[in-house]
Amino acid sequence: MSTGYLGPKMSYSFLATSKMGYNDGVPFKTIFDLFDAVEKGGIDRAVVPVENSLEGQVGQTLDLLFSKDVSIIEEYYLRVVHCIAATDNADVKIVHSHPQALMQCSNYIEKHGYAVIEETSTTAGIEKLFNEQNKGHAVICSEEAASACKLTILDRDIGNEHDNFTRFFVITKKGLAKPQGDKISIAFTLLNKPGSLASIVDVLAKYGIDMTKIESRPIKFNPFSYIFYIDFIDNGFSKQAMDEISQKTVSLKILGKYRKAIGPVMKQ
């Protein structure tokens, strides 16, 4: 059994894969490659990022969930904790990392007056430190990556926001998935007319179903038309609700039924 993740090794996707107990991880370069490998049977499952609590949705993942022959079988929330690390204790002048990590640590970077160099991944930044051995250079990465690569951690938890979580889905080829759990994800399209989206929400409300998320993505081949995505909790009336929803949509796809993961605690 093999599990694909968005590489390289020691990326946050790798950490999520490991923390979920999948120790047969295979790195892939792109999200599309992961979906393609699952659909064609090259791997049994894949761990893909779907949204970040600070940056929002991962659009490509949502698009491919709708278009590819796959199903969601699991979800997981990973707290993203950035540190700054180097090969020695020299005064840091320049930091390397993925653009998103640099942005999420921008306050710390600005406070210390560091110059930045963008890399394709946090792991690529680590590799550059070792390959070039430049004094005064550091990398922003996870503590796990720094420790695994025997870097000196100069400071911990340096992100702008403490509550930085990425939600991941585990996907497998449609037909192989065994629906189980209490959370359901669907995607659908509608006619562009007043009240069409409200009618879907009304059905969920009618059956007392807790909708936990709603968002949209543009349809690439039909400008200013949208695919809608909804997550909700199954309370025993989901079949009745789905039967009614199917009558109100142009197209409808059940993306998966899976166990609700323990997510971040929301502040009141």
TrEMBL record:
Pathway the protein acts in: Amino-acid biosynthesis
PROSITE patterns tied to this protein: ACT (PS51671), PREPHENATE_DEHYDR_2 (PS00858), PREPHENATE_DEHYDR_3 (PS51171)
Domain ACT: from-to ranges: 185-259
Listed GO biological process terms: L-phenylalanine biosynthetic process
Pfam families referenced in this protein's UniProt entry, alphabetically: PDT (PF00800)
Highest rank taxon of the organism: Archaea
This protein's GO CC annotations: cytoplasm
Record-annotated Prephenate dehydratase domain positions: 2-173
UniProtKB keywords: Amino-acid biosynthesis, Aromatic amino acid biosynthesis, Lyase, Phenylalanine biosynthesis
GO molecular function (one): prephenate dehydratase activity
PANTHER family: PREPHENATE DEHYDRATASE P PROTEIN (PTHR21022), PREPHENATE DEHYDRATASE-RELATED (PTHR21022:SF19)
Protein name: Prephenate dehydratase
Organism: Thermoplasma volcanium (strain ATCC 51530 / DSM 4299 / JCM 9571 / NBRC 15438 / GSS1)
